[in-house]
Design brief:
Elements lengths: L1 H23 L5 H16 L5 H7 L8 H14 L7 H20 L5 H9 L14 H18 L2 H14 L8 H14 L4 H26 L2 H4 L1 H5 L10 H9 L20 H13 L4 H19 L10 H12 L6 H33 L2 H14 L7 E5 L39 E8 H4 L11 E8 L2 E8 L7
Parallel strand pairs: 1-2
Antiparallel strand pairs: 2-4, 3-4
Helix pairs in contact: 1-5, 2-4, 5-6, 5-7, 5-16, 6-16, 6-17, 7-8, 7-16, 8-10, 9-10, 9-15, 14-17, 15-16
Length: 483
């Protein structure tokens, strides 16, 4: 009872801190703005046609499952504010903590608390990159499917949840490996293996898992049945099976141009050296072999999926990160002090990076408090520079990001009488425009994370500085203005 009360306290503290970040710091990165605008469009145009029709006809926009867009639209209509688009991610990130604890209690694990605390030492538990995106909700549904199997051994319902998760984000299909491998392993240990019956059983398990997966994917995307080609058109494969790409997936350090971290697997969970220590500990605490093999299956499946895509984004590895605490949870020999030391070691190696993420989020918020003043300053600087028009605006300043999204149809111009557009999504990189004039705005926060190359052998005019934003006019081929 005391353990449950203490855990409830941990959840409340964690939830309150996350609530402050999700709903107190109202700052948005470009992807969040894009999602919000799309969701607002669905609320106004699709939801009035009826919820069932909306769900059946909605496509997997941007490659994300229809059920994600439907849920978001319903939440926004119910709440009356687009800020609520963050609600499902907020509830999801808290749910991971609760799911881990419930699994431990149901299985009477000796290491329930250690697995919970290990999760809290992962930078992924403190990621605030895209707070209204589909990453966390799809992850939690898939992890819930894994948890259901671990606790009840109901493989069909488990794989259906994994299917819904996969339907929202395709990389979550890696979850399927854990229940499938464990089901086969347990059957093999109960019944003596022989080639004939073994392969028959394996085929039956695989087909059963695929059936559950397919049902779940259809629930997430009914359009698979009505227009399968449209569903498939959202995906592409540009494989990069190289050692360099693999090492980057495992241990790459990279912040996207919009200050969202998107590095390799080790930066979300365990540094490479700490992962080696974990392997030793798993041997010492005698973690169940079928769980280890199942988690390894998830890792290998996810690595394969990442290698199938030359454009790697760090959140593709989230299914791997969330199942790592299960290795500790299934330890059988009591060596609490050893596992606690490991948790502390992981905290020490990650605390600096977690703090950096918090600092970047707070810095973003502080900058946006000065947004109107900086925008006015930019206009004044342009007027004093006698710039009437430019061909392109390349904005890495953040002053085009909207602090108050209560009005989604945001004007992309700084002022009505200004003759250039400040691009809201900031992703425009023109390729062919000889002798174009580009207004380039670079904010201090983004400049600390990226090397901006604008000026090599180009005609550049420094237009001054507005608080945290530097202004330049670059006259050159536009394809020279890159990250």
């Amino acid at each position: 009872m005391r353990s449950n009360s203490l855990f409830a306290l941990v959840v409340v503290v964690y939830a309150l801190f996350q609530f402050y970040v999700y709903f107190g710091l109202k700052v948005y990165v470009p992807d969040e703005i894009i999602f919000t605008q799309k969701i607002s469009e669905l609320v106004n145009l699709e939801l009035p046609k009826g919820l069932f029709r909306f769900w059946v006809t909605q496509d997997n926009h941007l490659g994300y499952g229809a059920i994600y867009w439907v849920l978001q639209a319903v939440i926004v209509q119910w709440s009356g504010t687009v800020t609520a688009t963050r609600l499902i991610s907020y509830l999801s990130v808290i749910s991971i903590l609760i799911i881990l604890y419930v699994i431990g209690k149901k299985l009477k694990s000796k290491y329930t608390w250690e697995s919970v605390l290990l999760w809290l030492t992962f930078p992924m538990a403190w990621w605030w990159g895209k707070l209204n995106g589909p990453e966390y909700i799809s992850l939690v549904i898939g992890f819930l499917g894994v948890a259901l199997y671990l606790v009840t051994r109901k493989i069909l319902w488990s794989t259906m949840l994994v299917g819904i998760s996969t339907g929202i984000k395709l990389n979550n299909v890696a979850f399927l490996m854990l229940p499938m491998i464990m089901e086969f392993w347990e059957d093999m240990t109960i019944n003596r293996w022989d080639w004939r019956s073994g392969w028959q059983k394996l085929t039956k398990i695989v087909l059963g898992c695929l059936m559950g997966l397919a049902i779940g994917m259809v629930v997430a995307n009914p359009i698979i049945i009505t227009n399968g080609s449209q569903f498939l058109s959202k995906f592409k494969s540009d494989s990069s099976f190289t050692l360099r790409h693999l090492l980057y997936i495992l241990n790459g350090y990279y912040w996207e141009w919009d200050a969202v971290f998107s590095g390799g697997m080790s930066y979300w969970s365990l540094k490479m050296t700490v992962a080696v220590v974990l392997v030793v500990i798993l041997v010492l605490i005698r973690t169940r072999k079928e769980v280890v093999i199942g988690v390894v299956g998830v890792v290998l499946a996810e690595l394969f999926l990442c290698l199938k895509n030359a454009r790697f984004l760090g959140w593709y590895t989230f299914p791997v990160v969330v199942v790592i605490p299960l290795l500790v949870l299934h330890g059988q020999k009591i060596r609490h002090w050893l596992v606690v030391l490991f948790v502390i070691l992981n905290l020490v190696t990650n605390i600096g990076f977690i703090y950096q993420g918090w600092k970047m989020k707070l810095w973003h918020y502080q900058n946006m408090q000065k947004k109107k003043e900086v925008q006015a300053c930019v206009v004044k600087q342009l007027e004093s520079s006698k710039i009437v028009r430019v061909d392109y605006t390349v904005d890495y300043s953040e002053i085009g990001y909207y602090l108050d999204l209560s009005v989604v149809a945001a004007d992309k111009r700084l002022q009505d009488d200004v003759a250039f557009n400040l691009l809201v999504d900031n992703q425009f990189r023109p390729k062919t425009a000889p002798q174009s004039s580009c207004l380039v705005l670079v904010g201090d926060r983004l400049a600390t994370l990226n090397r901006f190359v604008f000026f090599e052998n180009k005609e550049v005019r420094n237009l001054g500085r507005c608080d945290f934003v530097n202004l330049y006019l670059v006259t050159a081929k536009a394809d020279s203005i890159t990250l």
